[in-house]
Write a structure and sequence with these properties.
By secondary structure, the chain is an alpha/beta fold. The protein has 2 domains: 219 residues, Rossmann fold; 143 residues, Rossmann fold, CATH 3.40.50. 38% of the residues are buried. It has 13 helices and 10 strands. The protein is globular and about 60 Å long.
Length: 368
């Protein structure tokens, strides 16, 4: 069956974004489907006039809204500058590992001449956070199956007017799900109590699949892998370096998505990033997908909650770790907790069960 997937894919430094895109395609192709990414230029979608006016008003009268808007603008600028100065060769990974449409579509092009498919799948990542109709599969043949597999609303709390719009988008779906409990609660509120909780696509593949493409680091000395996104955390990088030094560990530090500081960093490719995480003695991160791959590779880790205006995004990490009885790996004041024993057996068992259930789920939906 020909299956077009749609998700975020354009980043030059967001490892999780690219790996969740890769994972879903790999999973579907392993099942025998001709799965491909629909390259969508999400920046091409112009929001309705009333929504743009509302944003301008909020920007003018609400300091918190203004602060958050400035933060995202600054992070986007930093990401572009970092990608230019320190290329991580994400385009090469896309060319070699992500089958896709030969060119990228604008929203208008998708509506007028969409790529043909027997089914369209949206997900995963926070593609529903802005209620972009394209990410709700508002294009293509009305006869094609429409599947929402583990998309996230992020920290969206829609107004009644936006709820009405979301309901209209959801009517055409053959299957609805979300990656977080908060997303399931919102779908239930919108009139879809049958919506189910589904794993992030990166969890659909076993660790052996990722190890086939990873590039191992050259040094054999034990190191702490520090992977931080540009979000505020409770512990400074300086304190983490001091902690690692006290325990005779090197620090291999990778930052992305707007994180800038004076500490030396690595700028690995996707394959090198997998190898760095897989071969680390310990990992500290504030990233959802950084946490996912600690689970995959059974690496002892601590995850920092994010703070400030985006703290609502912590739900996805909490949901993930509670599912595998590992909530205690969330940092609660002591870096020494990094050395506490981690029982990965529940994760290893449940992840395989989730993979098998997802296979059965797709077989059931696509054969209806």
């Amino acid at each position: 069956m020909k299956i077009g997937t749609i998700t975020y894919w354009e980043s030059q430094e967001n490892y999780g974004q690219l790996l969740q895109c890769y994972a879903l395609l790999h999973f579907l192709r392993q099942m025998g489907h001709d799965a491909f990414l629909i390259k969508y230029l999400s920046s091409s979608t112009k929001r309705p006039l009333i929504q743009r006016l509302k944003s301008h008003i909020l920007y003018a009268v609400r300091p918190a809204y203004r602060q958050q808007a400035k933060m995202w603008k600054r992070l986007n600028k930093i990401e572009r500058e970092e990608a230019r100065k320190h290329p991580r060769h994400f385009d090469e990974f896309r060319r070699n590992h992500i089958p896709s449409t030969p060119y990228a579509f604008t929203a208008a092009q998708l509506r007028s001449t969409p790529p043909k498919a027997d089914a369209y799948v949206c997900g995963s990542d926070q593609i529903w956070a802005n209620l972009d109709p394209v990410f709700f599969l508002q294009f293509g043949s009305p006869h094609a199956k429409r599947i929402a597999f583990a998309p996230s609303f992020g920290s969206l709390h829609p107004s009644p007017k936006l709820e009405k719009r979301a309901r209209s988008y959801l009517e055409k779906f053959d299957f609805l799900s979300s990656r977080e409990r908060s997303g399931i609660e919102l779908l239930c509120k919108l009139g879809y109590p049958e919506a189910s909780l589904q794993p992030d696509p990166t969890l659909l593949l076993p660790a052996t699949t990722y190890r086939k493409i990873e590039v191992k680091p050259k040094s054999d000395k034990p190191y702490l892998f520090l992977y931080l996104l540009g979000n505020e955390t409770d512990v400074s990088v300086d304190d983490i370096h001091a902690f690692a030094h006290a325990h005779h560990l090197q620090v291999r530090y990778v930052a992305s998505q707007g994180r800038i500081d004076e500490f030396p960093k690595l700028y690995p490719t996707v394959k090198e990033w997998l190898g760095l995480l897989d071969n680390a003695a310990y990992v500290i991160t504030n990233s959802f997908h950084g946490t996912v791959f600690c689970l995959h590779f059974n690496r002892p880790f601590l995850t920092f909650p994010v703070k400030g205006s985006i703290k609502g995004m912590n739900n996805r990490i909490t949901d993930l770790l509670e599912r595998y009885n590992l909530r205690q790996r969330i940092y609660e004041g002591s870096l020494d907790d990094l050395f506490n024993r981690v029982d990965f057996q529940p994760f290893n068992r449940l992840r395989e069960e989730e993979e098998n259930r997802s296979k059965e789920l797709f077989i059931s939906i696509l054969n209806k």
